[in-house]
Amino acid sequence: MSNLYKDFLISELEPIALQKGIALSGDLDFIASGLLDSLALLEVIETLERHFKTELDFSQMAPSDFTSIDSLVNLLQKP
Length: 79
Hints:
By secondary structure, this protein is mainly α. It is built from three helices and no strands. The chain has helices spanning 2-20, 38-51, 69-77. Helix 1 runs antiparallel to helix 3 (69-77).
């Protein structure tokens, strides 16, 4: 399922990365790279939750847990 999550995130983020001239990779920090601002990141997370019919619990997370494709995929795979 991890490839499904990763493919979905890439399809959502690639147009933004191309427009901004940013090379998209699994470990690219969305905020530090300028790919997304905090509001856009929340929109991506909301889109993920809706698409995969899940709800992410942020109460026990550090910001680094959801600022890259790889970290979001890891988060989505947790039971």
